[in-house]
Amino acid sequence: MLLLVAGCESGEVGGEEAGQAGESEAYPVPVGTARPDEVVLRVPTTADGDTAFTLVGLTTGMPTLIGSHAEFHAKGQFVRVRMSVVNNGRSSVSFAARRHVLVDGGGGEHEADEQAMLVKRQPDVVDLGANVRLEYDAYYDIPAGAEPRALRVYGGPTLTDLKDATGTEIPLTGS
């Protein structure tokens, strides 16, 4: 038996509500509210290999972090960078969520603070599947007078960079 569908008048697939030819619909991803001490970042999404990074929030000058079981004091100041990460590749990638480096205005480089990441229960190494999105915070303990300038991100190994040796620097300006 052969069944042919001539058209749809109800706005279902193929109708006007599905968008014009060549247009893609956007997912209804919920908008998040910035935290009271956070500056919303408006910097372009940047790719490193198959991984796309969108930096969404920046908080500076935090003297203390409080987690579910600990209070942790900064040696200088804690800086928090909120980001969304998407694996645009066709395979999963072993994504090191704590590998990113914060670069300050004087050129100093700061690795994610392991204790702060633990206190705030943020991810470490994640098997980031194909087309999977992850949103989280990265915490850094930098000198009290230092100003964050950029975040060097690492998207995970690719066929052209198996060791993920080179990262991509994203400026923290444009907020």
From TrEMBL:
<protein>
    <submittedName>
        <fullName>DUF4352 domain-containing protein</fullName>
    </submittedName>
</protein>
<feature type="domain" description="DUF4352">
    <location>
        <begin position="73"/>
        <end position="153"/>
    </location>
</feature>
<dbReference type="InterPro" id="IPR029050">
    <property type="entry name" value="Immunoprotect_excell_Ig-like"/>
</dbReference>
<dbReference type="InterPro" id="IPR029051">
    <property type="entry name" value="DUF4352"/>
</dbReference>
<keyword id="KW-0732">Signal</keyword>
<dbReference type="Pfam" id="PF11611">
    <property type="entry name" value="DUF4352"/>
</dbReference>
